[in-house]
């Protein structure tokens, strides 16, 4: 039985993520944005498939990067331990798991460390911070201000994440 979408075909990822995003986006528009149900459903019907298609493309790239790292010599438990070690926690004592964790962290760094992604995240962060400030100045509702602030935190994390991965890679390599 599949326990995650990592091994799923891209079309399944597109359907699951598109439906979840569409439903949550529609509910968010209706509840937080105070749109009519019709407007929320139309927006969800257009954004859900678009988001699902984007996620399928990202998923395909992730699987390709993951396969290039070649973890066929590890059991599922060892791979799970390597995945956990690539993100956080103590450095594994088993050299195979430590090497796999280092490879996984490098794959993640390849994914998020591109200059284009960093520039886009910085631009989105600036725009979102400006939106938050203007929302506070204009006296908008706390919901709009909170949404803008959450977006700023998200885009800011994209800028910090590559540095965190580089640090983790150095810790795993030295360990």
Describe the 3D structure.
By secondary structure, the chain is mostly helical. The protein has 6 helices and no strands. The chain folds into 2 domains: 69 residues, no CATH class; 102 residues, no CATH class. Helix 2 packs across helix 4, helix 4 packs across helix 6 and helix 5 packs antiparallel against helix 6. The longest helix is centred in the N-terminal third of the chain and has 33 residues.
E-strand count = 0
Report the uncertain regions.
none
Task: Give the overall silhouette.
Answer: globular
User: How far is the first residue's CA from the last residue's CA?
Assistant: 34 Å
The helix/strand series, from N terminus to C terminus, equals HHHHHH
Number of alpha- plus pi-helical segments: 6
Work out the strand percent: under 5%
Structural class based on helices, strands and sheet pairing: mainly alpha
Helix content: over 70%
Q: What is the average of the pLDDT values?
A: 82
Total of domains: 2
Evaluate the radius of gyration: 20 Å
* Largest sheet properties: none
Note the topology:
Blueprint: H1 10-31, H2 37-69, H3 76-87, H4 95-112, H5 115-138, H6 142-174
State the gist of this model.
With 175 residues, the chain is mostly helical. It has helices spanning 10-31, 37-69, 76-87, 95-112, 115-138, 142-174. It has 2 domains: 1-69, no CATH class; 74-175, no CATH class.
Q: Key features?
A:
175 residues, globular, mainly alpha, 2 domains
């Amino acid at each position: 039985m599949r326990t995650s979408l990592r091994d799923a075909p891209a079309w399944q990822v597109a359907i699951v993520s598109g439906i979840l995003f569409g439903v949550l986006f529609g509910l968010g528009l209706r509840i937080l944005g105070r749109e009519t149900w019709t407007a929320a459903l139309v927006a969800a019907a257009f954004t859900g498939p678009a988001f699902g298609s984007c996620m399928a493309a990202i998923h395909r790239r992730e699987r390709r990067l993951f396969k290039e790292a070649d973890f066929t010599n590890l059991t599922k438990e060892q791979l799970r331990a390597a995945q956990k070690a690539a993100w956080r926690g103590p450095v594994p004592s088993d050299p195979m798991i430590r090497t796999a964790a280092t490879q996984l962290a490098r794959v993640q760094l390849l994914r998020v460390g591109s200059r284009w992604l960093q520039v886009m995240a910085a631009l989105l962060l600036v725009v979102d911070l400006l939106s938050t400030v203007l929302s506070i100045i204009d006296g908008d509702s706390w919901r709009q201000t909170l949404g803008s602030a959450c977006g700023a935190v998200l885009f800011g994390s994209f800028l910090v994440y590559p540095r965190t991965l580089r640090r983790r890679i150095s810790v795993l390599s030295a360990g």
